[in-house]
Amino acid sequence: MADSPNCDLKSLSPLQLFERVTEQGEKVRALKAGKAPKDEIDAAVRMLLSLKLSYKTTTGQDYQAGLPPKDLVLINNGTTKEEDEDLVDPWNVQTSNAKGVDYDKLIVRFGSSKIDTDLINRIERATGKKPHHFLRRGIFFSHRDMDQVLDAYENKKPFYLYTGRGPSSQAMHVGHLIPFMFTKWLQEVFDVPLVIQLTDDEKYLWKDMTIEKAHEYARENAKDIIACGFDVNKTFIFSDLDYLGTSAGFYKNIVKVQKHVTFNQVKGIFGFTDSDCIGKISFPAIQAAPSFSSSFPQIFNGKENIQCLIPCAIDQDPYFRMTRDVAPRIGQPKPALLHSVFFPALQGAQTKMSASDPNSSIFLTDTAKQIKTKINKHAFSGGRDTIEEHRKYGGNCDVDVSIMYLTFFLEDDDRLEQLKQAYTSGELLTGELKKVLIETMQPLVAAHQERRKQVTDEIVKQFMTPRKLAFEF
């Protein structure tokens, strides 16, 4: 389809056109590198020029590699009011909708693919395991090239997992557990290596903290991550401030990415300005580098062709759109991605959680009493103003934070559905629903705290020491 000049380009979105131009450019480079026949190269070049012309006609701007078009799609109900738009980037998530971000429109905007029933069923067939409830409930809802990862797995070809954490505070909250809970499940069902990046350098660059404090937070966050139950023989956790200075492979990949991304491109992708420090401008290459297996020669024996799968929240996608654009130009496979929805603040899906606001979420350091108080006092309710009205009209599950949290953490599908139906019908009151959430979260947090107590500095050192893992490459 990409090679047919007669295909209907008018039906494509600006982002789809951008990706088609990028793919065709890669094909032209591959044909030239492979010394293909001249007529074949000429045809591919003509198609590339046609696509670039269509892109300029549609967007009013010239195609620039690695610089996706400016947003031409509004996310929230087609409104043109600026204050009603959903804002999603690696540092900000804002929506005026009490239901939260419109993820179907976000898929269109970002140009990713929806995780549908067919893909979930294929994952189940490939692994022989029941899909994680994050998949069954659409918490992980979008992907890039997961079908390619499954192709490789079914053909006995290796891949590895990469996820990360920006250590902005000593105490993590329950929302921070989401990618790690899911990554742990992926690692277990596929039996693959995992690398976890702690971007303490990023937090030093963006936050008002010392470099020593950022590094300390990385070590403390590593303990919470390890407490999720990862296998030390299959998992490497690293701090950028530590690892970058010890791995030639990691630094070489950073420099390769830096050479192939211009300042203009990172300004367009990330919104950097001329007043941002040069550390911020160069940082995206550091988050890109773990996507390439050659960044970890001690694990992959120097092999460069092992594909990476990245589970992350969709606000991190701009980093990896950039990475996927650069990868073919530096001889690396594109990383695949699995995107999760955002975890809501207690005050509602339209508000932002903040480490500086202890009431915006349930923290992993909270006591049972604190958890109960926070949920009862701060969890936004979809219930009615009076018991009589609630009995008559029922509650709104779409905006109720207790329902949202239970969707993340209550594993029993039947129980969750019963609660939703009872709340919608008015049979279950808001106070009763919050009691269920309290009884779900208290043991979950207490169990995590017990596991974390067992994580010694020596165990952290084992996880964070560059070494060979329990795999042969």
Class per helix and strand makeup = alpha/beta
User: How many E-type strands?
Assistant: 9
Distance between the first and last residues' Cα: 36 Å
Number of helices: 21
Task: Output the CATH topology of the domain at 97-344.
Answer: Rossmann fold
CATH class of the domain at 97-344: Alpha Beta
CATH superfamily of the domain at 97-344: HUPs
Radius of gyration: 23 Å
Share in β-strands: 5-15%
Report the sheet with the most strands, covering strand number, pairing sense and barrel closure.
Answer: 7 strands, mixed
Organism: Sinosuthora webbiana
Family: Belongs to the class-I aminoacyl-tRNA synthetase family.
GO molecular function, one term: ATP binding
Keywords: Aminoacyl-tRNA synthetase, ATP-binding, Ligase, Nucleotide-binding, Phosphoprotein, Protein biosynthesis
Walk me through what this model shows.
The protein has 473 residues and is α/β, with parallel strands linked by helices. Among the domains are: 46 residues, Helix Hairpins (Orthogonal Bundle), CATH 1.10.287; 248 residues, Rossmann fold (3-Layer(aba) Sandwich). It is built from 21 helices and nine strands. The strands form two sheets. It has a seven-stranded mixed beta sheet with strand order 3-4-9-8-5-6-7, sandwiched between helices. A two-stranded antiparallel sheet has the order 1-2. Strand 8, helix 15 and strand 9 form a beta-alpha-beta unit. The N terminus is likely disordered. It is an enzyme of class 6 (ligase).
In brief:
This protein is of the alpha/beta class and 473 residues long. 49% of the residues lie in helices and 8% in strands. Strands 3-4-9-8-5-6-7 form a 7-stranded mixed sheet, with helices on both faces.
